[in-house]
Every structure is written in C-alpha cells, then in structure tokens.
Amino acid sequence: MEMVPSEENQLVPKEIENAAEEPRVLCIIQDTTNAKTVNERLTLNLPASTSVNKLFEDVAQKAGYVSGTFDLAWGNTVDMAVLDHSSEMPLSDSGFESGKKNFLQLTDKDGEQPQLASDESGTADSSGLDDSSQDRFIGPLPRDGMVGCSSDYSSLNYSYASILNKSETGYVGLVNQAMTCYLNSLLQTLFMTPEFRNALYNWEFEEGEEDPITSIPYQLQRLFVLLQTSKKRAIETTDVTRSFGWDSSEAWQQHDVQELCRVMFDALEQKWKQTEQADLINQLYQGKLKDYVRCLECGNESWRIDTYLDIPLVIRPYGASQAFGSVEEALQAFIQPETLDGPNQYFCERCKKKCDARKGLRFLHFPYLLTLQLKRFDFDYTTMHRIKLNDRMTFPEELDMSPFIDVEDEKSPQTESCTDSGAENEGSCHSDQMSNDFSTDDGVDEGICLDNANSAERVLKPKSSLIFELFSVMVHSGSAAGGHYYACIKSFSDGLWYSFNDQHVSKITQEDIRKTYGGSSGNRGYYTSAFASSTNAYMLIYRLKDPTRNAKYLDVESFPDHIKRLVQREKEAEEHEKRQREIERNTCKIKLLCMHPVKMMMMENKLEVHKDKTLKEAVEIAYKLMDLEGVLPLDCCRLVKYDEFHEYLERSYEGEEDTPMGLLLGGVKSSYMFDLLLETRRPDQVFQTYKPGEVMVKVHVVGLKSETISPPVSVRAYLNQTVAEFKQLIAQASGLSVETMRVVLERCYNDLRLLYVPNKTLKAEGFFRSNKVFVESSDSLDHQMSFTDSLLWKLLDRHGNTIRLFVSLPEQSPGSLASRTCSQKEQQLQASSNSDSQNASDAEHVDSLSLEASSAFSISTADNRELEKRIRAGGGGGSGGASDPENQFPSEERSDSDVNNDRSTSSVDSDILSSSHSSDTLCNADSGPIPLANGLISHSITSSRRSKAHEAKKETWDTAEEDSGTDSEYDESGKSKGEAHYMYFRAEPYSREDGSGDGHSKCLLVYVDKRITLAAFKQKLEPFVGVLSSQFKVFRVYANNQEFESVRLNETLSSFSDDNKITIRLGRALKKGEYRVKVYQLLVNDPEPCKFLLDAVFAKGMTVRQSKEELLPLLREQCKLTLSIDRFRLRKKTWKNPGTVFLDYHVYEEDINISSNWEVFLEILNEPEKMKSMSQLAVLTRRWSPARMKLEPFQEVVLESCSVDELKEKLSQLSGIAVENLEFAKGRGTFPCDISVLEVHQDLDWNPKVSTLNVWPLYISDDGAVVFYRDKTEEPMELSEEERNELMKKESSRLLKTGQRVSYSPRKEKALKIYLDGGPSKDPGQD
C-alpha cells in the first residue's frame, strides 16, 4: 500500500489522504432521551460519502448506546422526519449538506429508551470487559477554580467526551453538590464493600418509628439501591445529606474524608442501637491495641487496652527530612517503642522511684476491614501554616500484618496496671479504659467473623492468615487549603479497578494505582518539576483474605423482600420522573404579553404549552393565565406573533386555530427569538390582519399652529412600498391631505429624516420592523423652507430633546429676594431685552416666554399659591388654552445658534407631549371608519419601554459621578455663560403624590432642553429659588435617594432623562478652582475619634492659614467653637486615619493635592503648634501598663527625624521609663488601632530590630502613626480564670462598640457534625 505524509508528518495510506480532500458533513446530534442524567450533545465530522447506517454506528459508539436501539431525526424541521437506520445511501444524497451544520435529534425507538452498551454484558458486578476495550481515567477532572490533574493521572486513551458518556462499566456515579467529593468517595467505598452493603440491605426500616427523611440508615439504603439498580449516569446525594441534618451551606464546606468516616460510623451506631446491626461497625472495622509502659529495672508493665477504627500512619517523622518509603515502614515506626530516660524517666510503682522505661504500642488484633490513614496534612512551625506532605509512600496490594503483632505478648499479659501510664494516642485511636484482667477479653481475633460462631470457635489465627488485600484507595488532589477527593476501588466481582470520581466512573489499571503513591514523576504535565505531585493516596482500606468469611454482593434476585419493595418504589419514581422529563422536553415555553383592557398596562407572563396543543387551546390557557375571565369574552382574544424589543406585531394566525403549537412556533426550543401577544378587542371591533413581511409604523400628526404632537396611530406597510404609496396609506389613517403632507422618519432616537423622494421605497429610506414617523399637512409657507430651517424641524428637535424633571425647592426666609443685588436685576433686564429682539424674528411661529423677564422681581416666596400664580402669569400664557400640558408646546425663548444638528442619543423614546389614552381608528376609503382592535395602546407600551431605558441608564449614574473640580459660572469677561444660549424651559407647580418629603416643601415640574448647560439651567431656576444661581446648589437624586452635587457648570443636562429628580439646596455654589471640603474634628482619646463639623470651600492657591481664617467664623456660628488660629491645625484624613499635618504656609494644589468632596481633619491643640517643618514627624503614642492591664491615653510626640533612638528618648522623657527598659511596637489596623488588653502584651511585634522608623517592618514615614510602648521590666498582672473571663467580656463589649475586630477569640473551622435529631439547634446568640 502506498504511503504519503499527512499534515502531522506521519505516513498514512494514500486512500485516507485522498479521502481527506472530499467534502465533509458536520453532524450535531442532541440526545433527547432519558437514558442518561445529562443529555449531551455529540459532534461528528464525517466524509460526505459515509452511509446513513454507518452514521448510526458512529453515533452509537460515541454515545455509548447499542446500535439499533435508538432513532435519529432531523432537528431543524417541524415534522422531525426519522432517518432510515438500514439505508446504504451516502449522507450527501440523504439531505445532509456539506460545509454546514446538520442538526439531528437522538430519540427513543418505539417508545423505549436506548440500551446502554454496558447493558449487553450484564451488571457492573459481573462485567467482563478487558483493559483494551475500556476508556481508562484516574484523577480529578479539571474544574473551574481548581487545578486539574496532570497528565500523569490520565490513561493514554482517555478522552473528555468518553467521561461525559455514561460509564461503560455499568456503575453509577454520585453528583457533587458543590464540595462534597469527600462524601462521594466514602459512600462509593462503603457501597463497594460487600459486607457493609449486605448488612445494610438486611436492616429493615420501620416507618412508624422514625421519619424516613431523617433516618440515616434508610437514606443510605435507598442510595445503595439506586447505585445498584438505577440506569442513570449519576444520582444525587441530597437526601442523604438532608438526613445528616445538613443545610445547603454544608455543601460548600469541604471536610476530611477520614473525619467524615468516623462521624458517620458514630451516627450509624447510634441509629442502630437495639438492632441486629448494633455492633456492625465494631465487627467490621474495630481493632484493639495495647498502650504499655515497661520498667527496664524490674520488668513491671503498666498498660491499657485501646480500640481503633483506623490506624494513622506518619508520612514524615517530626523534625526529619526523610519520609517513610512504604506503609510497612510506617507501621513498624507506629509500634516502635521509645525509651523514657533522663528528665523523662517513669515512676515505677514497684520500684517506688523514677526509672528508665520503655513506652510503646502493640497490636492485639486487627479488624476484618483494616483502614490506614496516611497523615499527609501537617503543620509547618516555620511558616505557621498548614501544609500537605506529598512524599512518595508505597503500599502493597496484599499486606501481611503478621509481623506487627506480638503473639507471645498476648499469651501472657501483665495483670498490673498504672492509671497514669497510658499515653494519649495521636490521630484517630480511641482510648477505652479496659479491665486489667486481660483474660476476660474475647481473646486475640484478627478479623471478626460475621457468622454466629461462638467464642469457642474463635481461635488465634496463625500469622500466615493475616493477609489483607487492598480494595479502596481514597485519593486527595490539592493542598492543605483545599482540593478534590476521589476513590479508586477494586470490585470483588471481577477483580478490576475503577475510578469513582463524583459522577464519572471509569476503568483503571494497576499502573494508575501506583501513580497515587505520591512523590516526583518524570512526566509531570501541569506541575513543575520543582514540586511533587499533589495527587496522592490519603486513605487505604484492606480486607482480610479469608474465603470462609469473604462475602459477595447480593444480586437483585437475592434481595430481602423489603429491599425488593424499595426497588419497585424507586423504579416507579424514576419512571414518573422520566415521564415528567418527557413532558417537559415537549413543552413550549415562551414569553406572553398582554395589554390588560382594564388596567391599561402591559402584563407579562410565561406561557407553557405542550407542543401538540392547538392554537385554540393555547389561547384558552393564555386567557386564564392573564386573569381575563370576567373581563371580556374568550372570543375577544387571540394570540399573535410579537417582537417586544421593537414593539412589532409580526403576524396573526388567521385560519390556523387547529394547528399544533409546536408547528406554529417552529418546534420546542429553549428560547425563542420572538414573543406572543394576547391581543384583545371590544365586542364591536374586529381583529386586524397582520401579514408576515409587513412593518409597523407609529404615525404622529404634528400641528404647527398649535405646536402639538398627537398620540400615535398604528399603520402597517410593506418595505417595497414607495414613499408616495405610504403617504396615501397615512392619508387614509389620518385624513390629512397628501398634496401638502410632509413625512419625517425618526430612524433612531431623535435622528430625523425627511422623506421627499416619492419613488423611493421604504426599505431604501431605512424603515425596519417598527418605525416612528411624524406627519404634517398645512397650508403654511413653512414647507417651502429647507427642512433644518423649518419650524417643523425646530418643533421636532425640541420634542426630541426635551426632558421632564422633578425639582424640589428649598424653603425661603422672608426677604430673601429683597437681598438680590442691582447687578442681578440688570443682568435679567439685559437677558429680557436680548430675548425680545430674538423673538421678533420668529414672532409668526413662536411666542416669547416672558417668565424670566416680566416677573423676576415680583415673586413672593410665601407659599406655592403665589408661585403658581407667577408661573401662570409668566409661562402659562403661551399654552394656547390647551388643558393638557403634555399635549402642546408653550412658547419658548431660543436663538438661532441653538438650531444645530446636535442629535445626541436620548433615552426619550415616547412622546412627553402626547396624550396617554386615545383610541386608534383606520379610515376606510369606501365606507366610514371601521373600528379595529389594535391590540396595543402604543403610548402605554412606549412609556413602559422608556421607563426600562431609564432603569438601565440609572445603573450608569451611580458610577459616573463628578469627581474633580468645577467650572466657573461666568466667563473671563464676567458675563454669565448661561446667557450665551437660550434653550427651551417651562416650569409648573407640582404636588407630590407619594407623600414623600416635607409637606411645606415646594416642587416644580420642569420641561427643559437637555442641551442646556447646568449654568443656564440654574439661572432659569433663579426666580423660583429666590436667590442668585451662585447662592444655591443643585443635587441630583439617584437610586435609594442618594444625592450628589452637580458642579460642572459648562456641562449640559444630556446625562439626565425623563422623571429624574433634582433637589435644590441653599448655599454658595462653587466657582472655578474651588472645592467643597468636609471638615471633621479629630478627637484622639474619644470613643468616636471622628466627628463631622461642617462643609467649607477651599480654593486653589489658598494657603492653609487663609483657609483656617475662613473657618474661624464658621466654627463659631455653626459649631459654637471659639478658637484662636494658632490653637488648631488641619491635617490629612484618609478614611478614619489622621495623616500629614498641614503647615500654615502650605498652598492648596501646589503643596497639598485637593479634589472634589475632599475631607480634612481639624485638631484642637492644647499648646501652640510644634510642627514647623516638613522634616518633622508627629507620632501618636500610647503607653501599655501590663501590671495594671491598662492602656493610657494618646500623647503626641514630635520627632525631628525618623530615628528610633530619638523616639525612645522622647518616650523616656514622657513616661520616666529608662531608655534601656523601653520597648515599643507599631499599632495595627486603622486608627485608633484599638486592641484587647488581653493580647496587646503578646500579639504586637515589640522592640523591632531597626534603627530608623521608615524601614520594614515599621514603615513609619508620615504623621499620624500609632506607637505603643511599655516598660519591659514590668510584669503582667496575674489573673484568675474568673477575672480573665470577666475582663474578656468587657474587652469584647468595648471593642465591638469601637468597631474593632475581637481577635483573641478567633473563629475556628466549621466542625463536621451529623445531627441525629434532624438538624442543629439554633443558638440565638450565635453569629
């Protein structure tokens, strides 16, 4: 055969090389059956010449099913045609397209779910699969947030796709709830232990005695039954953990698997009291050993008997650099005695003196199931952290325990004991004080016989019988901080090893087991060669080899009757779940909307309807879902296809009432690209037909004379219609004349386009699914002007840029207006004259708004009635008599400079000037208007859309706050910048309906062009506030009523949108270069050291002394503090920490960085300022008196340098402590660095070995650092336990009040507990 090089430079047959050139078919197959827990998605890329029956074979192999037990159907067609399993036709001739995605669905065949490939060879317990036919896998699966396994721990033929398939082994996995891999490993080990499984099956649950939900043995029994009989890939463990009394938070706590084993066994023993299984755990897992001390002079031995459930084996002895190489070495070290000599001599009761002695452990007998814990977790006293020992430790498949038992010692035990001789064992050995007479014990019994043999039949087994075979290795991958557990278990049915890794079960080999020894490896994969692998064995479980005792797994036919009944119940529950999943899989779920005919608001719900239900039945379901029963008849409702985003009615379904919903919606999908609208009509109306391909247009009629824009009327058109045809359609709907009609399309928010080419199609003009147009038809000369110069454009431009704001005004004191200066009057008169001259040019179309000019000096601020009169007199006159202020535009003041093409994107999508409720009618040319059911009140929908847009925009407001500086309200010539541009502005009184705020506060509803600058906006508000714009501040109200001041005067209101709230507060507004500063008083010895005083204004270029001079009168007036300028200082404030002391000659922005909303500390001095230079350092010191258990008040020490010696000298002078006896430590945390008096003496880093303060570990280089100091010769006060507890309570209360962390009572790791009463009792005082 001729060979050619492939792309990977490997030689392949030429036929294969040529085959790669032919077209390929990409098949994406979705498994929709219930054969597996997770319905996977398969991808096959096959040559186009592949036959259909070969496709079935490939799918079967990849999915793990038996070929011929499933069907393949087209997934992108409504009828879901099934492929012929026996067809020999190539894919290219069977409807498959090369180069495209071909979607198929894998479905049940003749109502039966597919047969798993492993089912052909029976159950897992009798599987005869060989190594070559299995995908092998060992090690943790890579998962988010943790290190995956290295390549050392995956077999060469491992593939991720094979792991996602149901295991071919026939075993069932366990779902990891979150961090319950340790639990899954133990449960699978117990399940694979025949003696434990069979004993659990023999126990019968009595329903009347206990709640099955809280019964641990019953839930374990159910779990084991499902593991043996279920056809699922993996099952949940939530019922088991619920019986433990755990809540969902326990799933996020990872625990030690050995600890879980001990706790679970204790719980089972408690639950099994007074049953046949009462002693099961001890029979299977309990061994005995002797803890002895033998005098080396007289030979007397004192001892006690201990029981154990597992043997903890040290990996690396304490202080040693070399680890034990094998389990045998560790076992030998476990029983190796130590000599007690020198100061550790043992007091012998027989010798009546201290003597050299030998202390150690001896195994008396071993359990039937021997558990070895490899102590890989240790504590590093150098780093003071927990560590994991990844050293290599081998373990044999068969372990001979005869060398570790001393039969001679057991034949003649000493009968003398000493109560103080026993040493507490490490790890998990239980210490049960036994009788001194060892002859009363059951004798030496290595491995408990499970039959009812009497004690006479229990004889000492020879050493050759103590052979244990390994059958479970629980592996930990990770570090001491966390990781992943899984189990490698040998089946006693076939002698093969399997990896149980949560829901993944796969076959492995002896070589994979050897990789769990730990230590270094040649090919490390993910891990670097500098470290040993973190994946290694942690617990080993052996079983005694004894053919007379070794049990086999019970098969289904041999189950006890109560287990057979349980199997039947679980099978029925699984079938019911399958049926429910089948119904769920065939249920169409789609968003349902309805404009409620009474509430007049858009209602939203989810419509869930089976795919075989007809449209008529779906309408009935939607009718009840929207609570329309009793509101209107069912025949006044119908379902139509709807696009909520574009507010577009796509089509109606006339004549398709009996069509199944699955066909109508295009199949059952997880999500749809459209919604359904339940459209309603009045009994006297008829439904309008919506044809596919039509576009919906909302038509607003504009009245130039009245300056109004009407609510929308919906019409439907086609994209291939011309503009001329579209005008005819509008004429029918609105009654306007086509000859003088102008149509303006708003393509996006406020992007206006005049449609003036008659033969141009709507598609070419930019029409889409849903559109908005403005039409005007009048005899005025305005249509002769260019569009951008016309009054129509100005009206629409104003309409698109006008926003509505709610403004809360401050209360005014009488006479506030009288204090306004003459220059202000002159400015307003000048503004009035400018606006009059401007209005003269547009007098034909626009009336002037004379509010500012005519009434600025006559406003009375006594109450809202006068304000309302002023608004009516000044601004209400141009309303044209219309009663609804939203239906018309009053006159405005503006200049031609404002007429520009600045069309910034606005969130205003609806008409702020249109009526909320008006019926739509479509005129018929032949007859009178026919009432039609529109299905939508367009304005209401648009309003809801606008509110959604505002909600989305509010999310950005909270993160885009002004952060630096401000701009001057006046330009360089002194002229107000607000006068340069006049934008639309109208205000009217507003009464709060929500009852919020002060009942006496005044509110305005303001319509304003959002292109107006903040400076101009403030000037427009002057008549209503009653003071100059420079004397009040504008605060923008965000979510949760948070207020932030708007200070950038040259910025527009473009970031504002409809219904934003603004609060006006009196106070001097900032000018350019000015910053608002919050001043806090620093009280170093008060319980609350940070107290807010006032708001002040600092300016760029101002010295610190000048700012102090301005603060003096404010402190007197607002804070009642009378100070002299040399008896207080300003200093930096960083949260609660005092920082750099500002010297009088420092200049803001030059020496001191300043920003908007800056904060500063004011500190009152008891003596003149000592800080004169930046080279000095001010340190806050506090003395610790251990003899009195007291911390003294703070005292400031000013240093000339960062020298430690100078600090000690100053502290010595301050306290009288000799320099050589003085020790100091830096405080921790934020000021005041409070700490409990119970831990200050030991926990602080006293007397650091440094000569300067500005180096590690102190880093004291700025003012405000806290330093504790003490006399090292002073001994701490001796406290009784009662005094210590009392002091601890006081300190805890004190530190909690100051907000400091109480660290002397640290929170420990959450202990693993199993609650026998169904759950933990809640401690009301528990955190």
TrEMBL record:
InterPro entries: Papain-like_cys_pep_sf (IPR038765), Peptidase_C19 (IPR050164), Peptidase_C19_UCH (IPR001394), USP (IPR028889), USP47_C (IPR045578), USP_CS (IPR018200). GO terms for cellular component: cytosol; nucleus. Its EC number is 3.4.19.12. Pfam families: Ubiquitin_USP47_N, UCH, USP47_C. GO terms for biological process: protein deubiquitination; proteolysis. Keywords: Hydrolase, Protease, Thiol protease, Ubl conjugation pathway. Residues 172-545 form the USP domain. Residues 958-971 have a biased composition (Acidic residues). Residues 112-135, 405-436, 813-847, 871-926, 941-975, 1279-1305 are annotated as: Disordered. Residues 830-841, 904-920 have a biased composition (Low complexity). Residues 115-131, 414-436, 813-829 have a biased composition (Polar residues). It catalyses: Thiol-dependent hydrolysis of ester, thioester, amide, peptide and isopeptide bonds formed by the C-terminal Gly of ubiquitin (a 76-residue protein attached to proteins as an intracellular targeting signal). It comes from the Eukaryota. It is an enzyme of class 3 (hydrolase). One of its GO terms (molecular function) is cysteine-type deubiquitinase activity. The keyword Lipid biosynthesis does not apply. This is Ubiquitin carboxyl-terminal hydrolase 47. It comes from Paramormyrops kingsleyae.
